[in-house]
């Protein structure tokens, strides 16, 4: 017999047969339900690093023509195609999230370098670098996005990077693949 929308059996015979088959039922005293899907993603923790000495400070500033909505990709020639595909899809386990919101160019550069160095020491290879889209910058130019692209391209520890999937920040974030520590 078909059931109605409230999942009640449509005839008394079916109901009686069901109760005979199941037998006696013990009602649970605790009816509290647990939903594990409601857990939120962990929030990235901003770390503080000691300031750089003046003789080591320099800003990489080669390209400023990347737009906020532009997809960015770079890969060293030694990276396998399968790894590149996984990186572009976001099918990776992110070991660390770096959030640059609220930092100026100099602070962001220092923070990126220190985080990369720290991740190499911990032998963690995948980062999510959140630079933002830069829509509130002067002339709508994404200052931190341009800085990140230039900095990562010139860092020997970085094997590849690609704009993130929309769920991880889209063109306002980058997936970064680091080399293994030697």
Provide a descriptive summary of the structure in words.
Helix 3 (105-121) crosses helix 4. The termini are far apart. The chain is an alpha+beta fold and 182 residues long. The chain has one domain (41-178): Ribosomal Protein S8, Chain: A, domain 1 (2-Layer Sandwich). Helix content is 26%, strand content 13%. It is built from four helices and five strands. It has helices spanning 12-22, 81-89, 105-121, 143-153; strands spanning 73-75, 96-99, 126-130, 158-163, 173-178. It has a five-stranded mixed β-sheet with strand order 1-4-5-3-2, sandwiched between helices. The longest helix is centred in the middle third of the chain and has 17 residues, at 105-121.
Sequence-ordered SSE layout with sheet pairings:
Layout lengths: L11 H11 L50 E3 L5 H9 L6 E4 L5 H17 L4 E5 L12 H11 L4 E6 L9 E6 L4
Parallel strand pairs: 2-3
Antiparallel strand pairs: 1-4, 3-5, 4-5
Helix pairs in contact: 3-4
What labels describe this entry?
about 180 residues, alpha+beta, Ribosomal Protein S8, Chain: A, domain 1, 5-stranded mixed β-sheet, about 15% strand, elongated
SSE pattern: HEHEHEHEE
Largest sheet: 5 strands, mixed
The overall number of domains is 1
Distance between the termini: 68 Å
Strands of the widest sheet, in order across it, are: 1-4-5-3-2
Q: Please identify the structural class as seen in this structure.
A: alpha+beta
Beta percentage is: 5-15%
> What would the CATH topology be?
Ribosomal Protein S8, Chain: A, domain 1
Report the strand count.
Answer: 5
Mean pLDDT: 80
Name given to the CATH architecture: 2-Layer Sandwich
Gross morphology is elongated
**Helix share of residues?**
25-40%
Number of helices: 4
CATH C-level label: Alpha Beta
Radius of gyration: 26 Å
Low-confidence stretches: 54-61
